[in-house]
Amino acid sequence: MNNLVSFPVTPFETYLEMTQYGTEVHFEHDKYELLSGTTEDGKMYFLIDYNTGLTYEVEESTALHFVQLNEQGNGKQLVETITPRLRPTITLSHT
Questions:
Q1: What is the pLDDT of residue 1?
Q2: CB neighbour burial string for 41-57, b if at least 16 within 10 angstroms, e if fewer
Q3: Which of 40, 48, 80, 84 is deepest in the core (most CB within 10 A)?
């Protein structure tokens, strides 16, 4: 069983509001994009999963680890490190 904690889902609008002082794209790989934004309190990191359209808030140490894996060309390991922390896709239905 996987003991990793899922990344918190953050509405994309929240990302836009919190990063109004500037953003930086750190990488795009296999439908995942890591961005950071400058906020009043420092820097925040966000991972966009284009498979689901969800945006996740990522801790700085984890984000820097992802950047390192990407820079080293370890794309497969990068994806294998990201995917267990993503929330499974669910479908909501209204009856």
A1: 42
A2: eeebbbbbbeeeebbbb
A3: 48
